[in-house]
Amino acid sequence: MRRLSAFNTAALVLGIGFLYLPIIILVIYSFNASRLVAVWGGWSTRWYAALVQDEPLLQAASISFRIAFIAALVATFLGTLAAVALIRFGRFRGRLPFAAMIYAPLVMPEVITGLSMLLLFVAVSIDRGFWTIVIAHTTMATCFVAVIIQSRLVDFDVSLEEAAMDLGASPARTLLLVTLPLIFPAIAASWMLAFTLSLDDLVIASFTTGPGATTLPIRIYSEVRLGVSPEMNAVCSIVVAVVGIAVIAASILTKLNAARGAPVQVQP
Amino acid sequence: MKPQPQRSRLAGIVVWLPYAWMIAFFLLPFLIVLKISLSQSAIAQPPYTPVFDLAAGWSGLRSFFAGLSLDNYVFLGSDPLYVLSYMKSLQIAAFSTLLLLLIGYPIAYAITRTPRHVQAVLAVLVILPFWTSFLIRIYAWMNILQHDGPLNQLLLALHIVREPPAWLSTNTAVYIGIVYSYLPFMVLPLYAALERLDESLLEAAADLGCPRWRTFWTITLPLSAPGVVAGSLLCFIPIVGEFVIPDLLGGSQTAMIGQAIWSEFFANKDWPTAAAVAVVLVCLLVTPIVIFQHQTMRGMELD
Amino acid sequence: MASTTTIPGFAKRGFAPWTDRNSQPLLRIEAISKRFGDFAAVDQLSLDVFQGEFFALLGPSGCGKTTLLRLIAGFEHPSSGRILLDGVDLAPVPPHRRPVNMMFQTYALFPHLTVEGNVAFGLKQEGLPKAEIATRVADMLALVKLETFGLRKPHQLSGGQRQRVALARSLVKRPRVLLLDEPMAALDKKLRGETQFELMDLQRSLGLTFVIVTHDQSEAMTVADRIAVMDRGRLMQVGPPAEIYEQPDSRWVADFIGSVNLLEGRVGEAGDTIEGTPFGRIRVGAKVAAEPHATVWVAVRPEKIRLARCEAGAEQRADTENSAVATVVDVGYLGDLSLFKLRTESGVPLQAAIANTGPLTARGIGWNEKVWLSFAPEATIVLTR
Fold this sequence. Notes:
Strand order of the largest sheet of chain B: 1-2
Radius of gyration of chain B: 25 Å
Number of helices of chain B: 14
Strand content of chain C: 25-35%
Strand content of chain B: under 5%
Number of domains of chain C: 2
Oligomer: heterotrimer
Largest interface: A-B, 102 and 96 residues
Distance between the termini of chain C: 14 Å
Helix content of chain C: 10-25%
Structural class of chain C: alpha+beta
Largest sheet of chain B: 2 strands, antiparallel
Number of strands of chain B: 2
CATH architecture of the largest domain in chain C: 3-Layer(aba) Sandwich
Number of helices of chain C: 8
Radius of gyration of chain C: 25 Å
Strand order of the largest sheet of chain C: 6-7-8-3-9-10
Largest sheet of chain C: 6 strands, mixed
Helix content of chain B: over 70%
Distance between the termini of chain B: 12 Å
Number of strands of chain C: 20
């Protein structure tokens, strides 16, 4: 009985509409020729043109992308290891504190993680800047990666790994030849998630940044505190477009790989 | 892969690499925050005293511990501003979580009622905004809630109000911002829990004479409880420490604790106080955090 | 409790290495136990499997047969006991180095590899030259009749085809022992029957040793040279199918394999009768190896019971042994057999099975009819436990 009731349809339409309306309005206003929101001056791309001129903004964008790229790579690596350890290794000693530390950042308010990381860097006298942000973002993203990979591993058919070993592949080769290829979509998805989290982060970056390492969100924040501005609208629209395309690409990729590695049902 | 009696070196690395990282960059920082909360502010680099200096030897250590004090905590306890701030944050978080539940549950439920292939698309649609910048989405609301922004234009055009009301810098704006930003965090765990629900249970209830609404109340709702708990905690805990939303959308009456930490740190340069505020916040959140951990661990049952 | 006494006729195809005192078993399981906490999945089990045998582990769900298989493959570690292959203790050998291969119940085909890729996987791990791998893979695919399917992926195959790929993948490595975990569970009845015979042919022609786990009795009886019947982690009886069926050594085995009528009584003075059963006195075929007055059970298989209509006026040969008058309480028509639920005048419930040899039009025995049932002394089995 999959017919949608009126209530359910309304919930869906309103809900999804609510989620997208602000973004749509934002994008529309980025094309507003007039500077004032109240006045619609016609369609124009002047704000986008102005962006290209804005050196500091482009600089910030470049820094953000580089940080996100590296942080995502390391976080994916660490997070995958953590997920494998949690799911495959049974009850090893120290599992509980290990799991606690992996899941805590998921919910910890960002001001706290940001503050604590900054204090660490100060205490150990590390100069703050590009690399401290990378470290902070990696730490934060690792737990998200772990959660995604772990939910994939739980569904993973263990007998595939046993079959590989039975046929002569050592545990290491099994991981390489069988497990990793089959969970690859999850790994790719979590890389993207980590990338987005890093690109988007304001609070932690603010705490852990240093001279010459202004990220895009920090830049945007300093501008929007003063109020709405059409250049910001343009920047944000671009970011939305980039991320939107990436997410859609990722989900298409996941759909294409959906048949792989699903557990086989045995009809009794 | 069940663990072999002789654990291979590879397995050791798999565990120790992330473990070491998290200890260094998550646990250690917390201990440092704790330590600094027990220090005093100083005009120095770093701006607190005492400083932990291994080179100073035993006497250095002794003076270090002598320099620690609970002054900051006493200060926090005595100043009603902070106490109020904590309460405000908890209250806003609780109310927001409730709103999120009331709005998110019907959405999640509606998604499960659609055909399978549509569900996947809807799930992506729900999560897509989450992937676009958090900051940008709040900023989008700033656009809308402006004095002469589209919302007021609409309200004026429909003659619902005569004067354009002020939305920004109010509690209402903060609630709108929070619900908007955290909705995916509520919908997705709910959807996951509801999707796992065995349809044959509902059919059995109907077969035994249970009307639709009562089936929902006595079967669907209780069985989706883990999703409700997960989603609520996933929202409540970070909202307590929110900074960006109250800063951009709120006013002077919405002084949340996240803002207090930020201003102590950046504006007042008072690191020890900021640290103390943070420690108290973590203590307040320990119980829900532990419950969340427990739920997550239970979610992946080990055989 | 390995059974070494056999009447020669029991062994199939005259192949019975377990009767030869001089032959060494290929696989020896010595007092293996596997405990999970308090629960013993396998309990002090000892077993020998000989080269060239098709050996079946049979038992109800939860009896530990799959655990035992996994212990041999190396995916579980025994809590105590040893497993020896060719006299070598397998304990220190990890699963990927044991000369034993397993065919999984779910087939566990690698979804991201083609059929050829799957079959070649094990050979690649051995580091064989590419040309040799290609040849052996092609030969094996021909053997399981999947020559044209080499480039397909598992999700493009039917259940039966997947099963043959799984089989090919294990066989191509020429293991000393092939373990099969309920290999036909996912197949429909007809396909199952065909596959059973194919497996037997394959095993015989390649001269390999198979150990199969199944909960399906008729499957075990069809394919196996010997069956080990297990219950709750323990070995109940080992022997060729005919021996297990005709000479069960316990009530449990008699009841588990096929159907059986069990009657409790005491051994008579002369040792060739059982007294005091609900059926009265029963004469048995040979002298019972138990003391007089000892409590025993007489087992009679339903197909060994003869039924005849009670014609009005016919003599009730009350003195005839092993016979009684009964009422037909229920009839089950199975096409080739008819199953009768009977109750004797003294209230004893019995089952009988009669082959439907006559044409349908001839009136068979129906409900509530009075019948005369009897069984030969040689058709009885006396069980002491």
